[in-house]
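Batch 3, record 17
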Amino acid sequence: MEKIRAEQVSYTYQTKYQKVQAVKNATCSFEQGKIYAITGESGSGKSTLLSLLAGLDLPTSGEIYVDGEPMRGKNRDIYRQKEASVVYQAFHLLPLLTVAENVMLPMEMNKVPRTERRERAIQLLHSVGLSDDMYEKFPKMMSGGEQQRVAIARAMAAGGKILLADEPTGNLDSKNEQNIVDILVSLAHEKDYLVIVVTHNQMVAQRTDMVYRMKDGVLLQQV
Amino acid sequence: MFVFLLATALKNIRRYWRKSVLYTLICVIAVLTLQIYISNIDKTEKQLKQLPQAIPVSACIANLNGEKIAALYIPEEIVQGLLDSSHVEKEKLKVLLLGAVGDFPLEEWKTHLTLPVVGTNTLASLDGLDADTVTWLPGYGPEVLADAEPVCVADTSLMEANGWSLGDSFPLNLYYYRYGNYNELFYDPLEIVDYRIVGQVNLKAVAAEVFPPEIIIPFDAVRVSYHRQGIEFFADSASFTVSDPLNLNDFKAEMKALGLSPINPAAEFVDNKGNSLLVDDVTFINAATRLQESLSLLKGFLPLLVAVLAAIGYFVSYLIIQNRRDEYAVLRLLGLGKVKSMELYFIEIALITLGGSMIGALIATSLDIGNMMVGAMVMGIFFLCFTSGSVAALWRLGKTNVMLALTQMD
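Prediction for the assembled complex:
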C-alpha cells in the first residue's frame, strides 16, 4: 500500500553566495511495511529529499503526497508529531534530558497521560535493546550505538508509522551499525513501519527492500 | 499544550540553572537601577509639589515704587478681589482708624481721639503679637476677627484705666483717615458702634508695630460701618500667601486683572495708592526652576533608559536562545510548531524576567528605594522592555531554517 509519493519534486535553496538546486524533478513512491534506501555521494541531495519527505520544508516545485493528501495542505508540524519521525547521524538527543525524558518528550507533546508515559517509554527502550539501568542516564554517558537506539525509541514514541533515517549508522562501528540496521528492518517487516534510510553505505542499502540512487539531485531507481 | 509549555519551561529553567541564575541577576540589577532612577523622578516630583510648603511665596500690596506697604489707600475692589481669588490664601488685611470712647465735642478731638484702632481679619497681621497671650471671653477665640460682629480685643491697660472687664460693651467712636490732594492727612468721623470686649491682651508690648493699637476690631465690621455710612472703603495694608506658587503666572495675571501692577522701583512720582504688587518669589522660582530642570533631564533620559533596557533584554535573550538553536531545531523536528516553540522560550524568559524583577523590586523596597507603587510600576516597565527585546530575539530564532540547521548539526 502506497504511503508516500513524490511527484516531480524539486528543491532549490539560497546560500549566502549562491542558489543551489539540491533536488531535481524527483519522482518516487514508498509503501507501508517496507524499508527503502536512498544512496548517493555526499552532496547528491539525498538528505534534502529525506527532509522534504519529513515535511521539514516544502518542495520548490512538484508535490509530495502522504496517504494521497498533498503535503502542502497538511499541518507539517502535526505530521511530524503524529505520523513521521526522523533519526539523524548525530542522534539529536536533548543533552540535558535523561534517556527516559528524551523518549517521553513526543508523548508529552501528544498529551499522553503521565502514568502511561513512563511505562510506554520503558517498553520502547526494551524494544530497541536497552536495559532498565539506562533510563536515568544522560545521553553523553552512553555510546553512539546506545544513543541511536534511544533516538529510534523516541521516533517510535509518537506513535506514527513512518521512520526516516538520515545516515543513522554514520557515527557507529560495524557491530552497532549491524544492530541498528536490524532494528530498522525489524520495524519495517515486523511492525509495518515505512522506513526510509539515507545512506552511502552499500551494506546498509543491501539490507533494504528497494534502493533509490541520487546523483546531482536527480533520483534514479535501482532494485 | 500550555501546561506542557509551562512545565517544560520550568524544567528548562532548572536544567539551565547557571544561565537562569545569571539572567535573574541581570534582571535584579536592571530593576534596581530602574527603580533608583524612577524613585529619583518620584522624589523630585514630590519635592516640587511640596516646595510651596517649604518655601512659601508671600506677597503684599505696595505703592508704585514698593517703598510703602502700609498706610496705603487700597480700594475695596482690590480687597474683595484678593478675598475672592483662588490664588490667594492666609490674607492679612488691616485698616487703621482712630477711636474714642463715646461721643465728644469736635473741638475736643485732641483730648478724646486718642485710641489707635486696627481693623483686621487675623491677629497674625500684627507683627510681634503672640496670639496665645490673648485672654478670651469663654465662647470666643481669634476666629471672631474673621466675622463682622462688633466685638473687640482691648489692651489690658486701657481696660484697667476704664474699669472694663471681659464681656463689657462700650461705644467706640471711629474715625477714618484720608489723604488730601497734597498728601496731607485728615481724619473724618466714621461711626459710633457699641463694641463688646471679648479679648484682652497687652497690646503695648507688641513692639514690632510702629503705632501699637489699643483696640483690635474685625476687618469686616469696619467695612460694614463704611457701607452703612456710604463712605468708600479702603484698606491700609494687605499681605497674603500665594496658594499655588507653581502657577505664579496665572496668579500674576489675575492680580494684573485686579488692577495691581508689578512694582516699579524706578518710579519717580510716588503716592499712597496701593496699586502695586510686591511678590517675594525669587527663592521659590530659583528652587522650582532647579527642580524642574532636574525633572526634565530625568524624564528626558527615561525613553533612552527604556530603550537600553529593551536592548539588554534583546541581547541577553539572544545570547541565551542562540545557544539553544540546536534544541529549537530538534523540538521542531519532533513536531512542536514554530509558534509553540517560541512560546516555550518566551515563557521561560518571561518567568525568569518576572522572578528577577520581583526580587529586584523587593530588594529596592527593603532598601527604602521608592515605595510599593513605584516598585510595581518599575516591574511593569522593566518586564515590558525586557520581554519586547526578547520577542525580537525570538523572532530572529524563528527565522531559522530547521532543515539546514539539522543538517549542519550533523
